[in-house]
């Protein structure tokens, strides 16, 4: 499960699926006055069509950019503001993805624990049916409530 650990580096396309990219992209395009593009860390367009003479703003969550936001028609301040909004959305997506992955890891771990416990119980049950243990089945069992009276229950 190391590839899907909750505490790992998430890529931009993992945090923003196609539907979310289209939704946020169109909102950012109208906010920036005409054009915008969201690029991966390699410069490949994830959404939109980057122009040749575009401004580029990094989308940084931790140390290195996950990608870039570009626009040719916006002012530098508007592009920086839109990129900041996108980073806020990315951080929310990151928290959601981390929480859901942690939940799935916990469920898988609980399931494995239950399977081990089930195997242990099946093993002890089969050991109880062996001839050496069968005499114990028929032995008189006394409960603590009946110790004073000397009576027994089966």
Short description:
Helix content is about 50%, strand content about 15%. With about 150 residues, it is of the alpha+beta class.
**H/E element order:** HHEEEEHH
Q: What percent strand?
A: 5-15%
What best-fitting shape do the alpha-carbon axes yield? rod-shaped
Strands side by side in the biggest sheet: 2-1-4-3
Number of helices: 4
Low-confidence stretches: none
Tally of DSSP β-strands: 4
Q: Could you tell me the mean pLDDT?
A: 80
* Helix and strand composition category: alpha+beta
What distance lies between the first and last C-alpha atoms, to the nearest angstrom?
Answer: 49 Å
* Residues in helices, as a percent range: 40-55%
Biggest β-sheet description: 4 strands, antiparallel
| Radius of gyration from the alpha-carbon trace, in angstroms | 31 Å
Please name the defining characteristics of this protein.
154 residues, alpha+beta, 4-stranded antiparallel beta sheet
Explain how this protein is built.
- The protein is α+β, with helices and mostly antiparallel strands and 154 residues long.
- It is built from 4 helices and 4 strands; from the N terminus they run ααββββαα.
- Strands 2-1-4-3 form a 4-stranded antiparallel sheet.
- A hairpin with a 4-residue loop joins strand 3 and strand 4.
- The chain starts with 11 loop residues before the first helix and ends in a 16-residue tail after the last helix.
């Amino acid at each position: 499960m190391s590839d899907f650990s909750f505490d790992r580096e998430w890529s931009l396309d993992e945090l923003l699926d196609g539907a979310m990219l289209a939704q946020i992209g169109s909102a950012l395009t109208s906010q920036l006055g005409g054009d915008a593009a969201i690029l991966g860390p390699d410069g490949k367009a994830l959404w939109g069509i980057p122009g040749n003479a575009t401004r580029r703003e990094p989308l940084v969550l931790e140390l290195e950019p996950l990608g870039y936001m570009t626009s040719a028609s916006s002012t530098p301040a508007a592009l920086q503001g839109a990129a900041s909004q996108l980073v806020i959305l990315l951080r929310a997506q990151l928290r959601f993805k981390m929480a859901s992955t942690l939940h799935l890891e916990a469920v898988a771990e609980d399931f494995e624990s239950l399977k081990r416990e089930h195997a242990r119980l099946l093993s002890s049950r089969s050991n109880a049916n062996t001839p050496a243990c069968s005499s114990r089945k028929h032995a008189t069992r006394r409960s603590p409530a009946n110790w004073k009276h000397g009576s027994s229950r089966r």
